[in-house]
Structures are given as C-alpha cells and as structure tokens.
C-alpha cells in the first residue's frame, strides 16, 4: 500500500510518515466532483475495490476489517452507528470513487465517493509492542450527476485520518491519585496557616474583623496555592506525556488524537477543565492580593533630620524640610514596579524560538521532534508543555543573567537603601500580621539637609572609612535591612498615636462623600 487511502494530493514524505509508528496524519481538502464525469480526469484509484492486509512478524497476512459508517440493512436502518462494536457489520472491501454502479441505460446518473477514510491503530495493553488489527472506517456519499451542473455543488470536503490510540486508564488513575495527594496537602497548608495566624498579635483587635480577615485570607491562600500547585501539576503530567511520547524508542505510550471518541472524555476534557479552573482561581487570587494585601501594607517613614530655623514671610520657626522624605517615598513607589525579568523581552524571544526556529511544531502528534509543519494535528496538552518550558526557560535565563550582572550593576533596591541613608530617612514596612521589613536609613553624619559640597565630603569620608557605619547591629555592622516582627507594646503606641487617627480620618471622609452623594440624589 502506498497512497491508496489518501483522498487528496499527497507528497512522498507524507506517504512515508503514514508507515511511521505512532504518527497521526490528518489531511483535509476540497475534491472536485467534476473529475468523476470524464474518464480523462478520473482519479488514479477510481472504480477499484481494495482488500487491505497487514503482514505480521511470521509473514502471515491478516485481513484488515472495514467499517462503513453509513451502511444500512435491508430495512434501510443504519447498522454501524451503535457505540457497541459487537453490533457492527464489518466488511473487507471498500472503494474510493464509483462511477460504474450509477449507470442506468448507458448513462451515468449517480456518482458515489468516500468523504472520509479513518485508519485506526490501537496498542494491545496486555502485550508489549503489539497492536490490535487495524480498523478502516469509511463514510460514503452519493450525488446526482445532473446536480453537478451547478459549479458550486462540485466542491466537496474530503478527509483522511490515520491515528494511533491506546487505553490510557492506568495513567489517568495514577494522575488522579497524585491529584488527591496534592489536594490533601493543600488543605493541610491552609489549616496550618489558620492555626499560626491565631497564635500571633494583629493590628486590628476587633474579633469580628479578625474572623472576616481569617476567612478571606484562608480563601485567598487556598485559591493561590491551588492555582500555583496544580499549574505545576499540569506541567509535570504533560511533561511526562511529552517525554515518553516523543522520545520512546519502542512502542510504549500513545496520546489519543482529538478525533478519538474516548479522548475528549478520558484526556482532554479533564485537562481543559483543570486549566480553566487554574486560570479563574489565579485571577481571583491576584485580584485579592492587589486590592487587599499589596494595598494594605503600612509604610511608616521616620525622618531623623533635626528641625532647623526658617524665616519666611508666612512662617518663622523651626521645621524639617519635607522634600527628602517625599523623594524617598516617590522612589519607594517606583520600586514596587521593579522586576528581575522583562515581559517584552520574554515575549520577543518566545516568538523567535517558537515561530522562527519551529519549536512550536514539537506539539504535533508524532513520536519525534519536528521543526517543520506536517499534516498532523497539534495537541493542546503538548502545546501547553512546549509553551511553558520555552517561557520558563527564557525567563530563567534572563533572571540568571540579571543575577550575574547584579554584582557590577547594583539592583534598584540596593540603590534605594543607599538613598535612604543619604536622605537620613528610615522606613518601616509591615502588614496586618505585624511582620515586615525595616530599612535603617539614619545618616552616620547626623544630617542630610546640607549643601552638595558637604554631601560629597560626607560620602568621601564614608568611602575612606572615616565615618560611623550605617548599620545598627554589632554582629553585622553594615546591615541596613532587617526582617522584623513588631512587639505588641510598639503596636499599641502606633495604634494610639497614628493608626486610629488615620482610620478615623478615612471614616470621616467616607461619611462626607456619602453625604454629598445623597445630596446629589
């Protein structure tokens, strides 16, 4: 057998791929039925019957059964549409194009042709490297010759599909067990968070507010960990499929194609459901993190500068110049957008690798790596893995390069710590759990509101080692950044002198806005 099963024009290398084990081929085209009206334009294999046999390792010929999908019995009832294969009526012969049986009174009245041919192979799960006898499925249609006078009626879609399949129940049972283990771990992590949360102090001591916060935080943690954990679960599952399918030297694993009847139920629907769920949960988790966490941090700025006397027309007295503090806060705001990787660079390199070098073709359904487009379908689970490893690989490479160059070019957060020391400003950052960071920016010279020349001399003195160190720890004198857990008495003073006042002012503004809104209504 060479190209007899192909209904469309086919290249030689595609015929060779037909006999490559594990390769799925999908070929679709429009066939001109007008070619069947003249002997000069008849296809090569028109008006021929085919008997297909497969030769086993002993040299014996085993006949390949044929299932005609729209075969009808003597009562004009379809017999091969039953899902139970025991009720099928299989044949051994089939044809591609028939312009003989439709001749009446020496005139061609009806033409019959195959619209689709489906060649199916299935691995034997009980015997290594063996398959069941293949099955050929054919669907026929017929057309009145007089209807072909309309040129639009001549073009008909035809297709040929060759696919390999296997029972994947065992693999998905193991994947399901892995899924259950991860779900148990996810619940345990959430319970540990709830337990540890109630062991510590909080900024807000209201019981109802604390309970609401715990519920919201637990749901956020559950969604965030679920989306992250099971994203890598999908990566590991699809990675296993990719490796054992693409690099198998002997027949071991076949991925069902999209045309497989059991594929959508056993393989692709669970994957699609999981991916959609991950996307939704990650979106909710990110929204919660931005609205309630990132926007809920407390930033307390400490200006160590001593008041100076100022004499202006509107003001006379001692005060501290606010511009240093405002500049530091502005830089802190910009620092929150700093990234170690650049999305634009990642997307550009991703397109170069996948489109330019043809890595996207790794996702086609054939058991080898291909860098060129073939007449094989792209499988989404393989596409997902290829996209993931390319983006992750490019991002990891960019991150590694950034880390290598950070010793020569200081990262932005290191420059920000130096800025705090130059500005004589410290920053205390903490969340509702009273945990956070402290940047000690107190100037070793005692003052930062000085002239440019004085500032230059101060920095030169530090560089020569003639000034006090910037840090506060005797163990690590140069350390200026610290991870902290705030004590309760400090929080009590903070709440008394600052937090409660800010909360009351916010509440007053909200009430005023509501009053103005009601007045407009």
Automatic annotation (TrEMBL):
GO terms for cellular component: MKS complex. The keyword Membrane applies. Keywords: Membrane, Transmembrane, Transmembrane helix. InterPro entries: Meckelin. It comes from the Eukaryota. It holds the Pfam family Meckelin. The chain crosses the membrane at residues 178-198, 230-247, 345-365, 377-401. GO terms for biological process: cilium assembly. PANTHER family: MECKELIN. This is Meckelin. It comes from Strombidium rassoulzadegani.
């Amino acid at each position: 057998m060479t190209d007899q099963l192909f209904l469309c024009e086919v290249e030689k290398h595609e015929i060779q791929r037909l006999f490559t084990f594990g390769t799925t081929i999908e070929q679709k085209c429009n066939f001109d039925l007008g070619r069947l009206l003249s002997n000069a334009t008849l296809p090569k294999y028109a008006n021929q019957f085919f008997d297909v046999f497969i030769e086993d390792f002993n040299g014996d010929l085993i006949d390949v059964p044929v299932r005609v999908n729209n075969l009808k019995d003597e009562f004009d009832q379809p017999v091969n549409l039953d899902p139970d294969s025991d009720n099928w009526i299989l044949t051994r012969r089939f044809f591609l194009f028939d312009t003989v049986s439709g001749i009446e009174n020496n005139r061609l009245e009806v033409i019959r042709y195959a619209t689709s041919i489906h060649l199916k192979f299935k691995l034997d799960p009980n015997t290594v490297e063996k398959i069941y006898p293949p099955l050929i499925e054919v669907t026929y249609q017929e057309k009145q010759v007089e209807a072909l006078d309309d040129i639009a009626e001549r073009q008909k879609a035809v297709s040929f599909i060759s696919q390999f399949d296997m029972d994947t129940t065992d693999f998905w049972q193991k994947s399901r067990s892995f899924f259950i283990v991860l779900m148990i771990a996810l619940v345990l992590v959430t319970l540990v968070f709830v337990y540890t949360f109630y062991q510590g102090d909080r900024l807000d001591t209201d019981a109802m507010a604390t309970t609401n916060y715990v519920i919201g935080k637990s749901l956020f943690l559950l969604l965030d960990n679920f989306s992250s954990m099971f994203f890598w679960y999908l990566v590991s599952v699809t990675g296993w499929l990719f490796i054992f399918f693409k690099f198998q030297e002997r027949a071991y694993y076949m991925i069902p194609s999209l045309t497989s009847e059991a594929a959508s139920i056993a393989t692709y629907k669970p994957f699609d459901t999981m991916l959609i769920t991950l996307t939704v949960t990650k979106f909710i988790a990110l929204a919660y993190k931005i609205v309630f966490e990132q926007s809920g941090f407390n930033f307390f700025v400490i200006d160590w500068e001593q008041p100076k006397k100022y004499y202006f027309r509107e003001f006379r007295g001692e005060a501290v110049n606010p511009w240093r503090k405002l500049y530091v806060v502005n830089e802190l705001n910009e620092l929150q957008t700093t990234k170690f990787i650049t999305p634009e660079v990642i997307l550009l390199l991703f397109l170069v690798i996948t489109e330019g070098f043809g890595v996207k073709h790794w996702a086609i359904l054939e058991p080898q790596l291909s860098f060129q487009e073939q007449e094989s379908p792209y499988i989404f689970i393989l596409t997902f893995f290829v996209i993931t490893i390319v983006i992750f690989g490019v991002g990891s490479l960019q991150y590694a390069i950034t880390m290598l160059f950070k010793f020569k070019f200081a990262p932005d957060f290191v420059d920000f710590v130096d800025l705090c020391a130059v500005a004589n400003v410290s920053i205390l950052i903490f969340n509702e759990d009273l945990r956070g960071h402290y940047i000690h920016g107190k100037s070793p010279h005692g003052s930062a509101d000085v002239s440019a020349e004085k500032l230059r001399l101060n920095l030169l003195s530090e560089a020569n080692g003639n000034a006090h160190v910037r840090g506060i720890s005797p163990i690590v004198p140069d350390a200026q950044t610290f991870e902290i857990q705030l004590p309760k008495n400090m929080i009590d003073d903070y709440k008394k002198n600052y937090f409660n006042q800010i909360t009351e002012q916010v509440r007053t503004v909200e009430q005023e806005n509501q009053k103005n809104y009601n007045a407009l209504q």
